[in-house]
Amino acid sequence: MRVIDSINGGYSACGGRCNSGWYGGVLVLEDKDEAFVDCPTDASFEERASHCREWINATVPPKRRIILVTPCDDGVKQEVIAEAEYVEGPICPREQTETPVLAWIERHDARWHLMLYQDDTLCTVVSSDDVIRRATLIRDGDVLPWTDVGAMTTTLDLVDPSPTPGSHWYVPTVEVETAYEKDHFGICHGSPYFVTGR
Known about the structure:
- This protein folds into two domains: about 10-130, no CATH class; about 130-195.
- It contains three helices and 14 strands.
- The chain is mainly beta.
C-alpha cells in the first residue's frame, strides 16, 4: 500500500468502482480542532476548563464539503461537489456503476436534504423540515408522558414525574416528522444514562 495523495481536513470517506476505475468520496471538515487547541499556554485552570467546556461550539467547522476523488494522469483529481452548513456521509454503492455515485444528507435553508451525485449531476432526492413533534424519557423500558414541541430545535427539561427509590436507566427520546408519508414519524434516541434515587 502506498499513499498517493492526502486531503486536509478529511473526516470520513467511502470508495467504489465505476466503469472507468475507482473513485472516492470524502467529507471535509476544515480546521475542526483549530479553535480548541488555540488555548493560551498561560491560561489559568478555570480559563482552560471554560475553554474545554466550549469545545463543541469552538470546533464546529464554518462549512462542510463533499469531495469527489478520481484518478487522473498526474495522480488524483479532487473536486468539490457539495458544500453545506451540515453534512453527513458520503456513501457509495458496493456494486460497480457506470459513473461515480455518491449519496449524503445535508442541511441548509432550515431543511434536511438527501443528495445524490450520479452521471456528473447533483440532485436533491427528497427534502424535509424534520420538525421535532414531541419529546420524552424512557425509564427502565417504560415511556414516560410526552412533551409537545412542534419546532425545528428546542431546549427543555425532561423530568421523571414519579421517581422511585433505587437505580434506574433513562433514555431521552424525540419523535420527528420525516420526508415520507404524512403520518410516518421517526423516533430518535439519545445516549442512556443511569440514576440512583433515594
